[in-house]
Design goal:
Elements: H1 7-10, H2 37-50, E1 57-61, H3 69-72, E2 76-79, H4 85-95, E3 100-106, H5 107-113, H6 115-124, E4 129-134, E5 137-138, E6 144-145, H7 164-167, H8 173-178, E7 183-190, H9 194-213, E8 217-223, H10 227-230, H11 234-248, E9 252-256, E10 259-260
Parallel strand pairs: 1-2, 1-3, 3-4, 4-8, 7-8
Antiparallel strand pairs: 5-6, 7-9, 9-10
Helix pairs in contact: 2-9, 5-6
């Protein structure tokens, strides 16, 4: 041997330490640097891939940053009007009950214009999965205050901070839907650190597995940052999220196997 490293040696399979799931398209992610949407996309697609459900999965993405999901998720996708993803998911799952159906929604969509759709689908126990990305703001349309914006949190429509007396309290949608009899698994996770990503992926897989059991709706909230809307650098926004979002929206399971988790 002359010590030359061949092309075959460099590209041997055992040298591969990182591989993107084939269920993510080759499109370059257009989300702002540091945004949690891309990580959430990948985790959902990894779970679908690992469970062998790619040909039996239909996702629904409505208006907001989540509308871009169909550009990156390499499964059948349906676009919904603002807030109407639960209605679409209900129709698709009822017409094709053998399919794995999920709605992918942001907080401005799910907790504002889509509140009624969300509540009634959860209360009926529709057998699909909801992935809820909560960054406490309207990210795509200009950084306006959302139903999930924290008390005192600044936005383009609350430049001095959210005033509870005039603007009302934030809605904790995940705790709210956990009280409804039709939800079977309700959890809140994050994707800002490797440890959080691992926990989020386990929750996503559990939610999809529960859908196969046909026992009710599974609901996974992912608390994320919006560094553009928050006017922060990505690392700074993650720290702010840990210090401010997590105390108000604590991570962990809220309802498991149809029963509320005792704190």
């Amino acid at each position: 041997m002359d010590g030359t490293i061949t092309k075959e040696a460099i590209f041997k399979p055992e040298n591969i330490v990182y591989k993107k799931t084939s269920l993510m398209t080759d499109n370059i992610l257009s989300y702002c640097p540091g945004c949690g949407h891309g990580t959430a996309h990948r985790l959902i697609m990894e779970v679908i891939d690992e469970m062998g459900l790619e040909s039996e999965t239909i996702g629904i993405a409505p208006v907001g940053c989540s509308v871009l999901a169909y550009e990156f998720m390499n499964v059948d996708m349906q676009q919904a009007a603002h807030g109407r993803a639960p209605a679409h998911a209900t129709a698709i799952k009822r017409l094709m009950p053998h399919k794995t159906v999920f709605a992918y929604q942001g907080d401005g969509d799910l907790a504002a214009i889509g509140t009624a759709e969300t509540i009634h689908a959860c209360n009926r126990g529709e057998n699909f999965t909801t992935f809820f990305i909560n960054n406490g703001i309207y990210g795509m349309t200009g950084g306006q205050m959302a139903p999930t914006t924290l008390p005192g949190m600044k936005s383009s429509t609350s430049p001095y901070g959210r005033d509870l007396k005039s603007m009302g309290h934030p809605i904790k949608m995940t705790e709210l839907v956990a009280q409804l009899p039709g939800t079977y698994y309700v959890t809140r996770q994050a994707v800002h650190t490797p440890a959080a990503v691992r926990k989020a992926k386990k929750a996503i897989r559990k939610a999809i597995e529960i859908q196969q059991m046909n026992v009710g709706l599974s609901f996974v909230e992912i608390v994320s940052n919006c560094n553009s809307g928050w006017k922060m650098a990505p690392v700074q926004s993650n720290h702010w999220m840990e210090e401010n979002m997590f105390p108000f929206y604590p991570l962990g399971d809220i309802k498991v196997d149809g029963k509320l988790v005792e704190k």
